[in-house]
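Here is one chain, start to finish.
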Amino acid sequence: MRLEKPSLKWKAEHIAYMNEWDDARMTPSSFHLQADIPYEVYLEEMAAKEAGLDNRMLNTNYFLIDDSGRLVGMVNIRHGLNDALRQIGGHIGYGIRPSERRKGYATYLLSEALKKTDQLGIHSVLVTCNEDNVGSAAVIIKNGGIEDESFTEAHGNVVRRFWIER
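Its structure:
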């Protein structure tokens, strides 16, 4: 298992990964692909976000690649928080390919993402999940998450918020 930066060599795997998702709401928006935008443009946009060229929160994305070369997960690491991210999203957003869940990949992916936040000097890490996502809550807790006050979105969805101190 390893983290790799998104690149053109992962295009087919990324498309296959996204095709497994039936609910786009469940994946961090930085992972979404649009049919009318070439993959090269998607990669350029991700690079611009990482370099801080688009006036949004600096962030870094990684693919979790298994030993057979299959993309099994993705993670987005935000280098800071704004008011919106303090409520929903936090520092780390991640997703595991639906066919690869319940195999320990999410726990491993969050653990590796926390190593990246250490390198960025982020020592108090916020990770969130929807209230009904008990699997993700368990993963966050396994990685040291301490639950804080939940946030309720305007449409009623409850977001659980966890802090991981490093």
